[in-house]
Structures are given as structure tokens and as C-alpha cells.
Write a structure and sequence with these properties.
Shape: elongated
Number of strands: 17
Structural class: mainly beta
Largest sheet: 8 strands, antiparallel
Distance between the termini: 46 Å
Order of helices and strands: HEEEEEEEEEEEEEEEEE
CATH topology of the largest domain: Immunoglobulin-like
Helix content: under 10%
CATH architecture of the largest domain: Sandwich
Number of helices: 1
Strand content: 35-45%
Length: about 220
């Protein structure tokens, strides 16, 4: 984002914004924004409007894909709405479902996002008034819940922590917690025998099996 203020002002805004804007990862890939709970609106004054907008972007260096995700300045569709119970403005950035309106892309499942950039503004399209840049806390890992089974009819299963699959040959295996966090990855050769995933902690997991151009994801409990 372009900044039109001096370095001194920028440093001041960064320092004050940290107290006025708070962010919380409520679940993997979902970020709650709270603004104004202290009654201080010097970072961005909404002028008592019930709603203002958040222009969002993710820099290439701030996510595991190395790509830029950004909203069009003419379509900043994340909203901050006054919540009387919280006595603050509340908004949500849901990276699992959000399509960034400029890049027309979604952050892929399983990606790690270290922080999301935000600019507060009074209008969805353009702005008469806007804040400096600020950033959400992180990192967060998007859940890996939907990887298609391509170019294969193989059906795999996990029983007692051991993978049984109809794939043959070299496999790349990745095991994820349901939060989307990768806990292990390794290579194996499928010969028809069970493959021990070596998961010791009780819980629910996803195992992603890649065999050339084919992939399959299996949910299992330990």
C-alpha cells in the first residue's frame, strides 16, 4: 500500500494502532478484528458510523505460497460493524472462504499466513478517509480439508495408525492435525503392506497421499 505520511508519523501510528486494533485467531484461518474498545479512535475515526471497511492484502513474503493476495481498492468488502455489547467495532477476515477482489484468488488450503495487512477506510469503493497500514497477528494455518482425489480410484484407509492404500510405488505422505498444521511428512514405497504413520498423540488427523499426479486425503482418529 502507498503511504502518504512521514516516517515519524508512521512510527507513531504503528505504535498507537497496536493498542487500538486487536486481532485474534478464533479458529484456523479465521481472524477477529476489534477496534475502539478503549474509546481511542485516533488511528481511524469512523465518525460514529455504524460500519466502515477494511482493505485487506497479504504480501508474498507473509505467506507460504509466495504469492500476493489483495483486494481491489474499489471493492474492499471486509466490514467493521459497531457491536454495542462489545462497545467496539468488530470484523472478521475468513481466509478459508474469502476471495481477494483484486487478485481474484483464494489462499489455498494448508497455506501458512503470517500476517494480513489492513487499511481502515470509510467507503467500500475508494475512500474519503483512510488509516495507515496495520497488520493482524499470526501465524495461522488454513485447514487442509478438501484435496481432490484425482486420476485414480484408489481408496485408502487408516486402521490403528497404519495406512493401507491401493496406490503402488513411490508415495509422498503428509500428516496434518485438523487445524491444518503439518506434523510430519515422509516418503514411502507402497507394496501392498500397511505403512505405519507413527502418530502417537490421540486425536483426529488428515493424511494426504500423493502418488505422481494423484492425490487422496483420508481422515482418521488415533
Amino acid at each position: 500500500m502507498k503511504k502518504f505520511y512521514s516516517l515519524v508519523v508512521a512510527l507513531f501510528l504503528t505504535a498507537t494502532a497496536s493498542a487500538q486494533v486487536t486481532t485474534q485467531i478464533t479458529s484456523p484461518g479465521v481472524i477477529k478484528i476489534t477496534y475502539g474498545a478503549t474509546g481511542d479512535y485516533s488511528f481511524f475515526d469512523p465518525l460514529s458510523a455504524p460500519t466502515f471497511y477494511v482493505h485487506t492484502f497479504i504480501n508474498a513474503a507473509d505467506n507460504s505460497t509466495g504469492n500476493v493476495f489483495d483486494d481491489a481498492w474499489s471493492n474492499s468488502n471486509v466490514t467493521m460493524n459497531w457491536d454495542a455489547m462489545a462497545n467496539a467495532y468488530i470484523g472478521t477476515i475468513n481466509l478459508i472462504t474469502k476471495t481477494f477482489t483484486n487478485s481474484n484468488t483464494k489462499v489455498p488450503a494448508g497455506s501458512i499466513v503470517n500476517k494480513v495487512g489492513m487499511v481502515f477506510k470509510d467507503l467500500m469503493s475508494g475512500a474519503n478517509r483512510q488509516s495507515a497500514d496495520t497488520y493482524t497477528t499470526g501465524p495461522t494455518t488454513l485447514p487442509l480439508l478438501a484435496v481432490s482425489n484425482t486420476a485414480t480410484k484408489a481408496k485408502s484407509s487408516v486402521i490403528n495408525g497404519q495406512l493401507r492404500t491401493a496406490f503402488k510405488g513411490n508415495l509422498a505422505i503428509e500428516v496434518y492435525e485438523m487445524s491444518g498444521k503439518l506434523i510430519k511428512s515422509f516418503s514411502a514405497v507402497a507394496t501392498g503392506n500397511a505403512i505405519d504413520l507413527n502418530v502417537s498423540k490421540t486425536g483426529t488427523y488428515l493424511v494426504k497421499i500423493t502418488n505422481g499426479a494423484s492425490q487422496e486425503v483420508v481422515k482418521f482418529a488415533k
